[in-house]
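Our preliminary data section would be incomplete without showing what the modeling component actually yields. Below, a chain of 276 amino acids is followed by its predicted structure, encoded as tokens that our downstream tools consume directly.
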Amino acid sequence: VLSSSGYRTASQFWLRRAIQLAPNDRDKAAAVAGLRYVRSHSHWAFKIDASLQPSSNVNGGSANSTMTIFGLPFILSGDARALSGLVGSLGATATYRFRPSTNALSSLRFSAVQTHNWLSSSARRQAPNAKGSDYDYSDVEIGFSQQIRASVKSLAVYHWSATLGRNWYGGNVLSDYIAGGVGVQRPLSPSVTFGADLGLQRQLRADVFSRSAVVTTGSAGLTWRLRNGDRLQVTVGDQDTHSKNIEIDHNMVFAQVTWDKARPIRGVRIGAALQM
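Predicted structure:
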């Protein structure tokens, strides 16, 4: 009744409650089917993500104890080197999906994320004056994206996006940024999909303006849908950060393996990732 009256967000809330309180499998299956139907016809979608993971470098520090500048060696302080610890993250996303056309699907996204760090005992010995909160990170974004098919029969799905955001580091405003990206996804077989993305971001630093940068990222990867429904993804890419500041200007080649379990455990989706 709520969905037919246009209150699809409230309808999803009560259908989720019905799933939790269903007295038997038949009623639960009916509530699940109803939720899927309403969600597919709703303009709004909401998502909450939380994670807690160990890190060998919560501060983005150097793996070396010294660095060379203009041929001269410099000994790095404890807090300039990599500090290990735990990283907790909580994020929320609200997406408004416009009415789709024959070949395009457009959406407007609002998101916020907060991370908090806890330094390990070895990190506290290495940098006695450092605190985990010194490396906390917050971010808010608004973005528009669109998925496009060349035709109804086309297998390739092209996408582009534009984003505005602001982030904070250690409780202080770090930067404002504008970003754009394009990409494509195409199935190679019923179980394998190829994807490629190219992104460009302009960062305007609030602390030291000379640290502002232009970041270009390119990546490509394959996604496998396993027999049990789990998803395995392998991605390789290159990220170039161009800045007038020598401490910011750098290039990074990366690889990432991601696994997502198909079936939730007690309503919680499980996954893992390894990045190098």
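The chain is about 15% helix and 55% strand. Helices lie at 8-21, 25-41, 121-126. Preliminary results of this kind motivate Aim 1 of the renewal.
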